[in-house]
Design goal:
Blueprint (H helix, E strand, L loop, with lengths): L1 H18 L5 E3 L6 E4 L3 E4 L2 E11 L14 E9 L5 E6 L6 E4 L2 E9 L14 E8 L2
Parallel strand pairs: 1-3
Antiparallel strand pairs: 2-9, 3-4, 4-5, 5-6, 7-8, 8-9
């Protein structure tokens, strides 16, 4: 009985692996803003960027008057073709607001949706706008 259960688990796992569609990669252009949802990827030549998530979002809610604008911290995975991914963190308000990677400058432009005091943001709703350019 135990072996039938184990074989069933293995088969379910294999079906799930086979049924998974490959991740869609957006094409983006250097020096042009582009937007990514969480877990989405963009390709800029041989550079690939993945939006991992938002571990910190203390931006001032739109329906509140704040003394400080707050900050959103985003985490990105970056890699060159056929290389391991490097994780970088950049911020909306505090430094660093941009990162250098393999001759590219990755700049945080904006994060949506905006915050409101009485509404929690589902992590899957986040979308970040970035601009990537060649570093001098």
């Amino acid at each position: 009985m135990r072996s039938i259960f184990f074989i069933g688990l293995v088969l379910v796992g294999l079906v799930n692996l086979i049924g998974c569609a490959p991740a869609v990669v957006k094409e983006a252009q250097l020096d042009q803003p582009f937007t990514l949802f969480v877990r989405e990827r963009a390709q800029l030549g041989n550079l690939q960027i993945r939006f991992i998530g938002v571990p910190e979002d203390s931006r001032c809610p739109l329906d509140v008057e704040c003394v400080w604008a707050g900050n959103a911290k985003i985490v990105l995975g970056v890699s060159l073709k056929d290389s391991d991914e490097t994780v970088i963190t950049i911020n909306s308000t505090v430094d660093p607001q941009e990162a250098l990677y393999a001759g590219y400058r990755i700049r945080f432009v904006s994060l949506k949706p905006e915050r409101f005091s009485e509404r929690l943001i589902n992590p899957a709703e986040y979308r970040v706008t970035l601009i990537v350019s060649r570093a001098p």
